[in-house]
Inverse folding.
């Protein structure tokens, strides 16, 4: 691992490009083993570049795994001494400030298992260029601040009737030898990372959308023939997203055609290539029979996310990859608001905050901790993180909260207008927000540069004589790797005060009952006058900032908030705090070898929620869900895996036993035989019904398991079937589980998305998903190590969502994961580097586990020749 160490790249070293590419003309002659790529570039000296003192600098073109065939300038073949091929690219001597460069090279898409650049998925050609994949296609200044007009010609055998690229189709025909030829032109200048090409035997569904200014846009969704019936939901979602972006942000679509393609082999969720989005099949294809409600909602949000990038990402793009959150944080905020408007706002917020608290907080506290705008990286692919995406979205949300919706809109209008067609920075975004509103976000900017999760400690006091209530808030952000002694941040803390009757107290003359306190000091007091009784504070409403908030709530106060808080998020959060208190106490009892005591306060709280017919069933379902083992681990200073598992199972069983009649009544009431719909109200009903079913089955009583058996047998939709099967796998007798799994597989083996669900049900099951079974799944005929979805379902499910089996005391789970990571790194470095995450947190575990995890990690480090991706994560985790 010592020699050939990857280089660290720093934000402070940024320099504008020496040369610009005004036009990029590409021709692809497709072949699995020998695709010929010709590129013709109009190159021009960048007037903004440092002139230097020794004439024209050499031109650097990135290029990886390319076979160079020829280089010409202004139509003349270049002699070899004028250029130099080196690792990572090509250096070219330049004689004139403007010239036309022609390069020819060969690539082998069939051998490309990294799924970056041009590759084959089920026999179809597709590309993935973000962040630095274009350099695996041809030699090019592969950096986002080089924006160019692209013209792309694709030549392929007649067995690939669909040939797609960005923009508009401007020409098509047949070559003399009978192959197909199509030319596309994208009129909008873009960086190479937004380039895309697709070629295959694909079917499509088509629709149209009329924009607010009356232009008709053609919408096409391409898939393999077998999936053509799974496109409707994505198409409807797309049209909703297009309308929403016009209404909420005033953003209209800009080309005459918008295409989406579904591919089975894909590293991420989807990609926003200009006019030609490419999607992981699992994030676009759905039908009621095959997709769960969770999948329907995920598809709606990802389709919207990619569409929204057309403005926040494509029309205005990033100057460099340190600015990634400029497009991702903003676009995640946009898609979250869209989903909130389309469904239940509170439930969407609860889901997002759960991810943040479980995984982003863990990232912030781990060895890969970095700010929303990182200041260095070895491999940019490692920085498509929860911090850049999710925390980045929280940062944009806080600007929205601080400025208010109208001011935020003025800021976003100015941002899009001022920077249209440009590659810009997070700083430019903040400045636009300030300039449009005459606002000052100077201190707020620290959110972009400081890593770590701030902790707020809140104390209060009430002065009865003066009628004064005071909140004293301290903030502190822990040290993170390479960053010490953090400065105070500007933190919006949305607050209400509840009276003894559960109603909000008026906070001013005008009768406002909610206020956003702006915390800017390390310690600050906020005084409320005219308060007639000692109130109970409802703090950080709607999770107004991505922080850990500590206030010493008593159990009865949390029960009170669960019943009365008018902020639905905080109502849910009160229940979570109650559960966390109970689970923390039980862990202590477990480790002391004491008998575990029934959590009565929690059970009472849950009973009141379950009996409350006035609440949205989706919210009730969320309120009845215990924090996951992963989230519990994130809460602990030192993680004792066995204690977490024991406490959580004990609480779950206690609730199930105590409230069985109530769960049964609610299950029966919600179990209606109505045809499937993906409307929010129906999704809500199914989510509570299946939450009840899971608790019922946790009793392991046969009458409860029979409910699951009959729900599975009815097979009305995949949400109900998968929930029932999941409950049987987790709580039913093993032979029973095995038989249901087998017949489910027989029924669905032709359907890739269902098979992924089926893999996941097994790998994540605390009782059924043992290491032995997971190893068997790796040998299953439907498993492919080269398909990221399958890897995530089986290996990822086990290592990231099966806390009990993965953390077995003998360390077998850790050794298994390191074996898989080592094997994967040879095929797909990006996936290997993501999958290793659970091992990187070893320092947080109690000594015996920590030692085992560390040695599994060391074994990876010692196996030599690691990819840059895996090297960065492993070496930072061990240092
Ligand atoms: N830019 C994509 C998105 O968030 C994510 C992505 C990154 C996809 C890198 C592929 C590769 O929408
Ligand atoms: Zn994105």
């Amino acid at each position: 691992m010592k020699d050939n160490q990857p280089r660290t790249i720093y934000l402070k070293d940024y320099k504008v490009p020496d040369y610009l590419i005004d036009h990029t003309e590409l021709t692809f002659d497709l072949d699995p083993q020998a695709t010929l790529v010709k590129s013709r570039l109009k190159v021009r000296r960048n007037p903004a570049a440092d002139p230097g003192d020794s004439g024209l600098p050499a031109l650097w073109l990135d290029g990886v795994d390319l076979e160079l065939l020829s280089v010409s300038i202004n139509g003349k073949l270049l002699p070899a001494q004028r250029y130099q091929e080196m690792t990572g690219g090509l250096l070219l001597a330049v004689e004139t400030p403007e010239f036309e460069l022609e390069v020819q090279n060969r690539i082998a898409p069939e051998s490309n298992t990294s799924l970056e650049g041009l590759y084959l998925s089920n026999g179809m050609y597709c590309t993935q260029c973000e962040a630095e994949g274009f350099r695996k296609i041809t030699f090019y200044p592969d950096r986002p601040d080089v924006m160019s007009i692209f013209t792309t010609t694709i030549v392929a055998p007649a067995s690939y009737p669909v040939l797609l690229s960005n923009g508009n189709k401007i020409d098509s025909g047949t070559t003399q030898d009978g192959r197909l030829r199509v030319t596309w032109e994208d009129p909008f200048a873009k960086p190479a990372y937004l380039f895309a090409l697709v070629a295959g035997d694909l079917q499509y569904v088509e629709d149209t959308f009329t924009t607010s200014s009356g232009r008709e846009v053609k919408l096409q969704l391409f898939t393999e023939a077998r999936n053509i019936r799974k496109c409707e939901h994505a198409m409807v979602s797309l049209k909703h997203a297009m309308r929403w972006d016009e209404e909420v942000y005033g953003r209209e679509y800009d080309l005459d055609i918008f295409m989406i393609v579904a591919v089975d082999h894909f590293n991420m969720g989807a990609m926003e290539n200009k006019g030609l989005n490419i999607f992981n099949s699992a994030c676009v294809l759905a039908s009621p029979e095959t997709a769960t409600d969770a999948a329907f909602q995920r598809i709606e949000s990802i389709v919207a996310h990619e569409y929204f990038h057309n403005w926040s990402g494509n029309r205005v793009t990033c100057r460099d990859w340190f600015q990634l959150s400029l497009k991702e944080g903003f676009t995640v905020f946009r898609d979250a608001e869209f989903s909130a408007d389309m469904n239940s706002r509170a439930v969407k917020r609860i889901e997002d905050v759960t991810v943040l608290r479980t995984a982003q907080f863990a990232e912030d506290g781990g060895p890969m901790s970095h700010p929303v705008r990182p200041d260095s990286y070895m491999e940019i692919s490692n920085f498509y993180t929860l911090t850049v995406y999710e925390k980045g979205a929280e940062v944009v949300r806080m600007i929205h909260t601080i400025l208010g919706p109208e001011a935020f809109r003025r800021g976003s209008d100015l941002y899009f207008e001022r920077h249209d067609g440009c590659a810009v920075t997070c700083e430019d975004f903040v400045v636009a927000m300030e300039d449009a509103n005459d606002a000052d976000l100077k201190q707020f900017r620290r959110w972009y540069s400081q890593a770590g999760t701030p902790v707020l400690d809140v104390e209060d006091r009430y002065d009865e004589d003066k009628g004064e209530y005071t909140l004293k808030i301290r903030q502190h952000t822990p040290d993170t790797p390479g960053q010490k002694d953090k400065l105070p941040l500007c933190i919006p803390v949305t607050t209400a005060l509840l009276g003894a009757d559960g109603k909000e107290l008026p906070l001013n003359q005008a009768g406002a009952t909610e206020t956003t306190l702006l915390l800017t000091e390390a310690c600050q007091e906020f005084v409320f006058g005219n308060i007639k009784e000692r109130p109970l504070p409802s703090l950080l409403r709607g999770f107004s900032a991505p922080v850990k908030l500590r206030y010493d709530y008593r159990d009865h106060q949390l029960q009170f908030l669960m019943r009365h808080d008018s902020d639905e998020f905080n109502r849910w959060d009160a229940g979570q705090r109650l559960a966390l208190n109970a689970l923390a106490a039980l862990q202590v009892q477990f480790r002391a070898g004491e008998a575990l005591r029934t959590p009565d306060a929690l059970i009472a709280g849950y009973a009141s929620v379950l009996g409350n017919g006035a609440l949205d069933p989706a919210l009730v379902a969320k309120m009845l869900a215990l924090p996951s083992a992963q989230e519990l681990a994130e809460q602990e200073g030192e993680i004792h895996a066995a204690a977490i598992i024991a406490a959580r199972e004990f609480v779950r069983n206690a609730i199930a036993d105590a409230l069985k009649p109530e769960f049964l009544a609610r299950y029966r009431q919600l179990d209606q035989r109505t045809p499937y719909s993906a409307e929010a109200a129906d999704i809500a009903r199914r989510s509570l019904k299946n939450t009840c079913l899971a608790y019922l089955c946790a009793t392991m009583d046969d009458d409860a398991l029979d409910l699951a058996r009959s729900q599975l047998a009815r097979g009305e939709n995949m949400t109900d079937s998968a929930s029932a099967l999941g409950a049987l796998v987790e709580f039913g007798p093993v032979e029973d589980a095995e038989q249901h799994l087998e017949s489910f597989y027989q029924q669905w083996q032709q359907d890739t998305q269902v098979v992924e669900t089926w893999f996941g049900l097994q790998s994540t099951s605390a009782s059924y998903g043992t290491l032995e079974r997971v190893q068997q799944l790796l040998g299953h005929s439907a498993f492919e190590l080269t398909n990221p979805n399958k890897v995530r379902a089986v290996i990822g499910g086990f290592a990231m969502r099966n806390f009990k089996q993965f953390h077995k005391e003998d360390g077998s789970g850790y050794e298994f994961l390191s074996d898989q990571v080592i094997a994967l790194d040879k095929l797909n470095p990006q996936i290997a580097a993501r999958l290793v995450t659970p091992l990187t947190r070893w320092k947080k575990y109690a000594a015996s586990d920590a030692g085992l995890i560390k040695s599994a990690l060391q074994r990876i480090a010692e196996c030599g020749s690691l990819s840059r991706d895996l090297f960065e994560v492993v070496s930072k985790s061990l240092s």
